[in-house]
Amino acid sequence: MPDSDPAPSQGRLCVIMNLGSGHRDRAHIEAEIVARLKPRFAAFEIRKTARGGDLIQMARKAAEDGFDIVVAAGGDGTQSAVAGALAGTDVTMGVLPGGTFNYFARDLGVGEEIDDALDTILDARIATIDVGRVENLVFLNNVSLGAYPHILKTRETIYRRWGRSRIAAYWSVLVALRRLRRPMKLTARVNGGSRQFTTALVFVARSAYQLDAFGLEGAEAIRAGKFAVLVARARQPVPLMRSALRLAFGMSAKNSDFDLLITDELTIETPKQRQLIAHDGEKTVMAAPLNLKVWHDALRVLLPADGRNKTKDGRT
């Protein structure tokens, strides 16, 4: 993650705000963003949408309109969409967390709360970071196949009924896994070799913070520019639920629950021609086989100028 010059304090900044993220007082948050950022930049604008599908085009339009910094205000899905529009360009991305887990904000150390993240934007350095890519889709935290995309479907139903919360998210895991019926058969091609697996879950991680939080191995490999690919050994609902519960309480271990592959490029072949995947909390159907690659130094981001991590637990 090489550093470059300090972030411009009098440049042009645009905030892309996802009104569908989180459940906090959006009017208050918007007022705080305007009050703190508008006086500090030569040009400032907030562009809002309640449609997640609009985010990529909005971020691209902001870059085309000449903004130096485009800030994503929302959860991990919002951050991923904006990053996908800005990766490979000279436009710098800022992060204002507004979702349930905010893994990307935690991984960068920019702050889990709006106040801290605004502090980062106002006193920042620019660094380039690696991102993941599956075909032409950019992801920041993870891509998964098998059980997890179905967990997201269940989560959406639970959120609509009970509202967004971490408890509701964890409950959706158990409900979805209880309904799991059939494991996947797949081939993973890595470094010129291939391995066959029968599994209920494949998790391709790009967030070191997320693996640390779950007590899983692979975080150091991610910091070194690799994927940590975790293939669940469980094939049926009950053992997979046990693994999920161990993860929730930080008791999982690679040797008991997962096979671990370390690589910066892999291909996953499945019997299905079209495969449902989850990526940073969103779902997409993609044509198989799936080609995944780490895109090195692809994205310019704002980080705290003093180098200190603003997450609550201090993890980097």
Automatic annotation (TrEMBL):
Q: Which terms in the Gene Ontology molecular function aspect does this entry carry?
A: kinase activity
Keyword Kinase in the entry? The reply is: yes
Give the species this sequence originates from.
Answer: Paracoccus maritimus
Q: Does the keyword Kinase apply?
A: yes
Gene3D superfamilies registered for this protein in UniProt: 2.60.200.40, Probable inorganic polyphosphate/atp-NAD kinase, domain 1 (3.40.50.10330)
Q: Which SUPFAM superfamilies match?
A: NAD kinase/diacylglycerol kinase-like
Q: What is this protein called?
A: Diacylglycerol kinase
What keywords appear on the UniProt entry? Kinase, Transferase
According to the entry, what is the taxonomic lineage of the organism?
Answer: Bacteria, Pseudomonadati, Pseudomonadota, Alphaproteobacteria, Rhodobacterales
**Any idea where the DAGKc domain is?**
8-137
